[in-house]
């Protein structure tokens, strides 16, 4: 059977003849989180007639795509964010940047419903030393453009660790990835995994697989590999373990008895295509009367 083409950022591409915009509706909706999930939900709800206010804690919309766009070969994510910003403005969505939405913000706004697209926070391995000053999250390592990194060890060789290594090859003296699994980038998409692994190989990024980190101190990390403990010297340690759902607001809303639903990566780990497509589907079938 011939499969229709699909597009990560345009959920109806390939399905134009079978998909239509959900019924017109009305209601006052708060969307929290201006990453791709929150932007797509806001866009589709506004097209259907809802009055939408989009809250974003950072100074600009885009969420993790603003970080992803700095990785070699990922610059086009920035164009997507610019396009969405234009669309959201055209649809008269109230955009509140620099605003951390809390349950109080939501309650004061008199919204009929809240959609939480709050994304993830960086994960950290449960070992001593993660709080030290030379240890930083992958998100910060990329977004803050840290200098003078010296020899770097990245803890975590999934999609985030591999992308971080790609970015840091031009900033660090050396980059090494430590991964507990038996392969690198197992959560990378099949169309990009081979390109990224080829890039890392060409840049001589060394990788330690089947290796558990047991401790971090100021000049080295201790790892357990092949039933022995080893040391790896490093000036900078980057944490790139699996991100965790950012669910604080959800707990606050629950406590206050306010109605909400989750979309995007706060709901479960997923790639960008699934983030945008599931946000579209949610917003296109959303009915206030069924909440
Ligand atoms: C370096 C890197 C490279 C990547 N490369 C790829 C790739 O090649 N392919 C791919 O499929 N995916 C990639 N990703 C993953 C992709 O960026 C994420 O899947 C996607 O951004 C998740 O979207 P989201 O909207 O669910 O969450 P996010 O993008 O995390 O957005 C959540 C937003 O909510 C805001 N927020 C949270 N709480 C509040 C609050 N209380 N009030 C106001 N605002 C709040 C945050 O500030 C954030 O802007 C990459 C990620 C990184 C970090």
The amount of helix comes to 25-40%
Question: Any idea how many domains?
Answer: 2
Q: How many angstroms does the end-to-end distance come to? A: 38 Å
Number of strands: 15
Overall mean confidence score, pLDDT:
94
Encode the helix/strand succession as letters. Answer: EHEHHEHEEEHEHEHEEEEEEHEH
Q: Could you name the CATH homologous superfamily of the largest domain?
A: NAD(P)-binding Rossmann-like Domain
Continuous helix count = 9
Q: What CATH architecture label of the largest domain applies?
A: 3-Layer(aba) Sandwich
State which percent range the strand residues make up: 15-25%
Main sheet makeup: 5 strands, parallel
Give the neighbour order of strands across the main sheet.
3-2-1-4-15
Global structural class? alpha/beta
Q: State the low-pLDDT regions, or none.
A: none
Q: What sort of overall outline do the alpha carbons produce when their principal axes are compared?
A: globular
**Mind telling me the CATH class of the largest domain?**
Alpha Beta
Using only C-alpha atoms, the radius of gyration works out to: 21 Å
**Structure ligands:** flavin-adenine dinucleotide
CATH-defined topology of the largest domain: Rossmann fold
Give an overview of the whole structure.
The two termini are 38 Å apart. 38% of the residues are buried. It is built from nine helices and 15 strands. It is α/β, with parallel strands linked by helices and 291 residues long. It has two domains: 28-121 and 244-290, NAD(P)-binding Rossmann-like Domain (Rossmann fold, 3-Layer(aba) Sandwich); 135-239, FAD/NAD(P)-binding domain (3-Layer(bba) Sandwich), CATH 3.50.50. The strands form four sheets. It has a five-stranded parallel β-sheet with strand order 3-2-1-4-15, sandwiched between helices. Helix 1 (36-47) runs parallel beside helix 3 (76-90), helix 1 packs parallel to helix 9 (272-285) and helix 6 packs parallel to helix 7 (190-202). The chain has helices at residues 36-47, 65-68, 76-90, 103-109, 138-143, 159-168, 190-202, 248-256, 272-285; strands at residues 28-32, 51-55, 94-96, 113-116, 120-121, 135-137, 151-155, 174-178, 206-208, 212-216, 220-225, 228-233, 236-239, 244-245, 260-262. 31% of the residues lie in helices and 21% in strands. The longest helix has 15 residues, at 76-90. Helix 7 links the parallel strand 8 and strand 9. Bound molecules: flavin-adenine dinucleotide. The site of flavin-adenine dinucleotide (FAD) has 35 residues, from helix 1, helix 2, helix 5, helix 6 and helix 9.
């Amino acid at each position: 059977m011939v499969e229709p083409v699909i597009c990560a950022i345009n959920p109806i591409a390939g399905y134009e003849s079978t998909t239509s915009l959900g019924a017109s509706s009305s209601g006052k909706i708060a969307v929290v989180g201006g990453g791709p999930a929150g932007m797509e939900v806001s866009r589709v709800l506004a097209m259907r007639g809802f009055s939408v206010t989009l809250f974003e804690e950072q100074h600009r919309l885009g969420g993790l795509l603003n970080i992803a766009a700095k990785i070699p070969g990922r610059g086009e994510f920035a164009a997507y964010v610019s396009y969405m910003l234009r669309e959201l403005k055209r649809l008269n969505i109230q955009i509140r940047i620099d605003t951390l939405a809390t349950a109080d913000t939501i309650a004061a706004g008199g919204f009929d419903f809240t959609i939480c697209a709050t994304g993830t926070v960086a994960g950290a391995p449960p070992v001593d030393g993660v709080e030290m000053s030379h240890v930083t999250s992958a998100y910060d390592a990329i977004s803050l453009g840290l200098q003078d990194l010296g020899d770097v060890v990245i803890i975590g060789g999934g999609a985030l660790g591999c992308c971080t290594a790609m970015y840091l090859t031009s900033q660090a003296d050396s980059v090494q990835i430590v991964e507990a699994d038996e392969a690198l980038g197992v959560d990378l998409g099949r169309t990009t995994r081979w390109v990224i692994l080829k890039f890392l190989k060409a840049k001589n990024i060394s990788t330690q697989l089947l290796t558990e980190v047991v401790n971090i101190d100021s000049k080295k990390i201790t790892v357990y590999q092949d039933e022995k403990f080893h040391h790896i010297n490093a000036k900078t340690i980057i944490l790139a373990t699996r991100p965790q759902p950012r669910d604080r607001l959800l707990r606050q809303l629950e406590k206050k008895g306010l109605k909400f639903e989750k979309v995007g990566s706060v709901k479960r780990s997923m790639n960008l295509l699934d983030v945008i497509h599931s946000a579209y589907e949610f917003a296109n079938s959303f009915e206030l009367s069924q909440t």
